[in-house]
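Record type: ASSEMBLY
Status: queued
Input:
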Amino acid sequence: MKLISIFASVLIVCLGLIAFADKRLPYTFCWCWRSDLHFFARQAPHKESNEYVSYGSYASETDWNNPQHLIPLDYEQAQGKRIFYEQCVWCHADSTPAGPSNRSNVSPDPPLMNDGTILNGESDASLHRIIAYGGPAGGKSAMMPPYGLTLRDEEIDDLIAYTRIIAAPDYHKPVSKPNWIWRSKQ
Amino acid sequence: MPVKQILQAMRWVPHVFAILSALAFAVVVWPPKTEMQEWKPSIRIQTGFVEKHPGIVAWKQSILPAQYAQASCGACHHDDLPETPRLNHGRQLLARLNCIGCHQLQNVDRPAMLGPDLTNVGSKVSREWIYKWLKEPRTITDADGGVIVDGVATNPRMPHFQLSDLELRALSSYLSVQGAKFIGAHNTVRASATAPAGGGDAADRGQTRFNQMFCVTCHSLAVDRGGETTLIGGDIGPELTKVGSKVKPEWLVAWLRDPQRYLQHTRMPQYEWSDRDLHEVTQFILTRLTDPDLLKDVPPLGPPKPEEVELGRRLFVEKGCSECHVIEGVVPRSDFGPDLSALGMAAGPFLVEVKSARKLPTNLHFVKSDERRLEIGISRIPRSMIAYLQAKITDPASVTPETHMPQYHLSQDDLDDLTAALLSMIGTPISGEDRTRMIVERPHAEFHPDGEMRRLYERYKCYQCHSFKGYGGTLAPDLSYEGSRSQHQWLVEFLKDPQTLRPTLTVRMPHFNMSDKDATSIADYISSTLQNPNIPSAAAVDKGFTEQMAEHGKQLFEEKYKCQSCHTIGSSGGYVGPSLNNAGNWLTAAWIEAWLENPQALVPGTIEPRQSIPADQRRDLAAYLMTLKQAAVDQSSSIGTAAGGAQ
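Status: finished
Output:
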């Protein structure tokens, strides 16, 4: 009993010292943003507001259906957003940076990029195939040209990641079976 | 007894063991608070950073908040990376906001002209207007006095200086006596500006002419749309909504005739004017683009007094005006603002190139004292470099009350981008080869046309909108290989009467009223010089297209490749690509085939997707497109539609 209590008290003192040093040091030497984040480094603030959303994310996208709502984007989604506004926006959105959309000139109507009712039904692999090899590769219209020679594979993946995050209704990744116990380390 | 003695002696061993194991647990088992990790190939890195930078160890989480993370890329990459749009935009802002005028920056070069040359400004504007402009350089604000109108910042490039009334009076009187006699000698132009011919009708015709010439491609105007003020037009030139209340009439006429005579480095091209057009457009600007209330807040100033002029002369240098504006005979101070080219170092090294993470102390990223670190003194701004920078930019007086730095009104996004660009500067010298690829206002000087074209190139300022071999503007199509793309005759006609190929664009090529001789000279130069070496010149090609080929091409166009989703032929089709109605007169067959094979090889970054079209199909598509010809359009009707588009 005595041994355990000695062990515990020394441990507590040491951990306390380390924590203290860790918490104090940043204030003394570090000019990093938000030095209080150093202690629990990966702990994010819990508040959910636009301020936080635009802070600390690579980019943000306004929810297409709700201008008040900002969606934070991670790196891949941010790259997807960039490529979308370069290549896809002309037909897959109702307005473009340069003026009216081309969507009405194309038949059948191209789905909007955030149209979850259509795009959530397609798997990532199927979307990738359609973007890379054109509409006919996925049983769609040839109005959708192939981008496999224009975009790299990872750029197409970025685009899909962007579609998924802005989808309305929300996209949920399909879970095939509960294999999380045996899932190999990524 | 020895055993008892031994046990007696070992009585403290478990205690020592407990203490040691606790220490060992705390120091060794308890993970150090560092996020430095060596990336394992099996970990999928979001940024693709590791694949491109083998051997570099990176933090798992960026030390900078994610919206500034691209600053780390900029530490080594001095050119545009497509993956770092925020950094690129921030660097463009650094150039646009003239930060280089007072500070030394790492990735930005000093352009030929930062602000207008003020040597003759007294001939252009009145003292009252200068007073108003120095006090508040924004002429358009929304109801709350905001600067964002319709999502577009109406800020002029001139920032907001906080000047006292005395300083305003002194500077306005000093500037108003600069070169006031400059235009006065040209009585002829004065006469044509004030000739009372037509009155109000002249202004109406001037407005039509103003729209036809597409002045709004570069200049913006605020218009009232259903009670909301919106800004229409480009931002290459200044916004013109109230310019009629600003400039003197005789100056305006002289300026429109030859802008480069007043400002050597202006971006404004020199138009070819008929006297009537000039008179009507001048009337329009002076009578319609006005605001009688513009100068109502200005106290009566009277004629400039000598002591005010003398004080203004001193303030012009002391306040830093001379860092951006030139007045002949005034010598600016060197190193007016602090050197910012190592600013990123002060925020801490954010990319550490090491082979092993083990030897690193846990607090590696804490800034060690470095002689290049900036001294920021005492302030109430949070001790974070980012908070400090942003406070300094948006309200400099909150950081240092006696600062000379002007105030900038930026949206939060712009501010973040600008911060990222500032943090990317880590002060290492940039080698010679990289210098040419730095993010600056692209130097047109690198592209030198010869002969007659040299004069026309400067006169019409082609490079402000078009790019040539990597230099020039990005507003209009890249013309590096225009000689391979377009037929000579089409070029001549287009230059004389530019008609847009993309019907939905609001920004169009201005109408220069170019003479036949100039148009032919430019077309000759383009056809002979701006050639792609891989495309046989138009004259050398006799394709021998047959009708079957064209027939087959039409089928491919409409059925297989569905080109009509983006291109218009006849009256149906998409708006994304150019209209192909006149492709037979416009394009060369060799260009079409090369283009269909690999568009990005001819125009980098074009959005036409590259497809694998077999050679015979490319030939058939070219044969089809070469059959599409349109009779020359009646000039007057085309101008009518063009003007309609600008409304």
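Annotation: Chain A touches chain B through 57 residues (CB under 8 Å).
Annotation: The mean pLDDT of chain A is 75.
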